């Protein structure tokens, strides 16, 4: 099991080599995040019901290196959907992974798709 | 492309790079930075924080990736040891040779080590770099008694660090007072009293002649023949400019060190500049970071062809918090050689000393000193720097107003507000006018004011508010960008429109999709209005992280669990159950400051099982996770105590059970004392009750937290029933009208009319809302349910308590280690 920040690299939709079937849509709470395990990686999947959008990022908080982003609170800043880390309320864009508080340390993000009632997360390796 | 080489990657070297990249096109300059330390530039001003949190990253000015993104080549761990001014090249100790067009010397300074016999002995350190700190931390594990040589700014910082390392700490100062450049004797005395309260021993007038011991030091000997046994010594007696490179290539240096520069910060080679602590400008070495930043700015302006600005002498005013004590010194603080009339305020009991120096003609402020209370610093500094006319009673400036309007002075637009980033009042006002910024954060991001050391933040906020007022608008405390309402207005809307759902409120009265500010605020309002289970009907998505899991998230992502122990009274059987649960789930246990027992280290999937066992033994949730009533502390009371007047334990239990689970804008704490000896410390609580001969005294709006404030008497000598009635009204009035995350103390401070007005509303019922408030409280009391129990008995909610949704394994990265026979989470990032 790995927890180093280097293992998490953003995947763009066109780079997806494997769509991992994570779990049924119902397993993910509404307007909140939940973590999945994939080959030793921890990925936070966000079911932003209010926007009818799904997002995924590393579960690892890049600031204190703890696996907790899935428990963060969702929201928006202007038009940008974001998640607030439960530890110190640093907020990150769910689209780009960028730390919206201006500091460095961004999140790796992953594509998500829904098919036949299942949630799939895209990986490139 | 012009080749720029910066030698030195400290704060000033970094700031130079940042400013040059910000002001000029990337293609115009090729930048290479050499740093001899292995880390990228870090914040040396806050070095002592490294002792409580030994993480280099926390102190970094910017990570290595920042240099890459900005096309700056950072070569760290490599020392330049030769400058060839004829061929315009530099060579490092590893043999790297690079050519430059312009060379920036930002080599900083090293610690000045006085020539004392024995300084080479083991156990003697300097306080300068992260490597020095690592060595000090390591050595201190074997020692108990340490000395710091130097009672200046840095020396006292180092002394704080030594206390953090659990050393009996002595400060040795050569001069007859502490911070001799910034303080006079009375100011130093006030500071010494505060420092001694914290456990430091201060030795003044001490000239060290020898450091004793064989290989390891064992003590210090002084000129006056006194001795001090200490096992380690940290030298922090001043700085020595790093000018050896400049000397070697023939640049002029001062007789006592420092690279000589002119007003444009050029050395006597016009292609070479020196900035920061290595530069000697008009016979002055600046040992502060702000003038270094200013120097960086001056050089950047010349490089980009905007060279009209020269470096002028820099004001050395400073404000800092030393071991929790405010100390400030500004302008001509001591006025040794300038005629002046001082005004002094001294409160020896509270450890406060304030002095301002008025010019002989009574027209201007020359400078001053503040110890123990330095709120007026920013204003006084501005008055001094701008030569502003003084009010008719200049003593108001340090005494505060005594009746009538507070002495408030209008600053000129040219007043420099943020000295780290060189931002004037005019810059801030203009940014607000031009962009119509409604948010202070936007103003700061735009102007960079307040983003350096942060000392100017209060004055930036004042300017922001004043500017808005001038533009004819009031700054409304709207909750966030999603609602144009205050918390009080939202509460009224929710109540009158009977809204029970966050999304409905957002659709009808807000915009966007919410955020981490409005969601928990609305969650709190809904809970204090309808008192429904906070995790049902999708409300879990709007709860703050602790409320969402009904437990407190701690380091490592584990949780802690606190069952209610009303009044701190507990039976032996219940104590045994807590012990058994802790043992079964391998939890760390600690008695809290509120007479409860906290169980740490639970994993998210274990929470419902732990609660179930506690509930079966008769416990319920203590709401340690909520912005809600936490504890009602009690003393022993008349049952056992020989002084006790009334049964404080019974009353504390009654009060705690009455208000358990009550959601409010911030956490609430209370206490009941059985006599005026006040063993329960009721006057430091949001509401506190103290027994009198006749009944109870009720105190409100105290705070024992980050800003200690004594509670004020709301009603005296009242019976238990009246006491509860007033508390009902008081709490509901607070819940209705406070802003989010305001404790009762802050709320009262902002309440127009203060405690007198509060008495009118609560005791005299001047608004005629007393009964309504009591009815609302009755509803909250009657609808109370234990939240833990609701989760334990609800399979749907229980399912949410897992780490992963696609596997049942717990978080495999969670790590614990042992300390004092119990477990603890491993340090951040370890």
From TrEMBL, chain A:
The keyword Oxidoreductase applies. PROSITE patterns: RIESKE. Residues 19-121 form the Rieske domain. Keywords: 2Fe-2S, Heme, Iron, Iron-sulfur, Metal-binding, Nitrate assimilation, Oxidoreductase. InterPro entries: NasD-like, Rieske-like_NirD, Rieske_2Fe-2S, Rieske_2Fe-2S_sf. The keyword Membrane does not apply. NCBIfam families: nirD_assim_sml (TIGR02378). This is Nitrite reductase small subunit NirD.
From TrEMBL, chain B:
The keyword Lipid biosynthesis does not apply. The keyword 4Fe-4S applies. Residues 3-283 form the FAD/NAD(P)-binding domain. PROSITE patterns: NIR_SIR (PS00365). Residues 554-615 form the Nitrite/Sulfite reductase ferredoxin-like domain. Residues 417-465 form the BFD-like [2Fe-2S]-binding domain. Residues 626-762 form the Nitrite/sulphite reductase 4Fe-4S domain. Keywords: 2Fe-2S, 4Fe-4S, FAD, Flavoprotein, Heme, Iron, Iron-sulfur, Metal-binding, Nitrate assimilation, Oxidoreductase. CDD domains: NirB_Fer2_BFD-like_1 (cd19943), NirB_Fer2_BFD-like_2 (cd19944). Pathway: Nitrogen metabolism; nitrate reduction (assimilation). It comes from the Bacteria. Residues 317-381 form the NADH-rubredoxin oxidoreductase C-terminal domain. Belongs to the nitrite and sulfite reductase 4Fe-4S domain family. This is Nitrite reductase large subunit NirB. It comes from Reichenbachiella ulvae. The gene is nirB.
